[in-house]
Amino acid sequence: MCSDTFVYTTYIRTTPDELWKALTEPELTRRYWGVAFESDWTPGAPMVWDEDGRRTVDPEQVVLAAEPGRLLSYTWHTFTPAWAEAVGLDREVYAPLTRERRSRATFAIEPSGDTVKLTVTHGDLEPDGIMRGLIGEGWPALISSLKSLLETGEELPEPPR
Description:
Shape: globular
Strand order of the largest sheet: 1-8-7-6-5
Strand content: 25-35%
Mean pLDDT: 93
Number of strands: 8
Order of helices and strands: EHHEEEEEHHEEH
Radius of gyration: 15 Å
Structural class: alpha+beta
């Protein structure tokens, strides 16, 4: 696919407020994503990504929009050597990935009867870039685990890499 945007939509049996909590509260994000975010969730606020004690901090890692129960958007994380090693990314993939422009993730939350429509838009990607390929597999698995957690109380096991 030659596009700078990836879009994934699902419906979750939950409330907008519960979905917001699952997107922002560290004890929940750690369960289905393996990442705890440190932020005050206001536009312009920094975001720290904590993955098993590997903290990714960068002044360009910020919240772009935050409307509880409606909309969340932030710039994507910085790619560090520790992150690449932890996710098993070899140097031939990691080096060009670090040269791609910073992308952004947006979560639109809309009530839909007894469910909530969640649309994840990951934009500003390099068309045909490495990140585009990685998130094309990553977001569906991640959002499926989020959906499972909210609907059953149990996240899915992490898919093999």
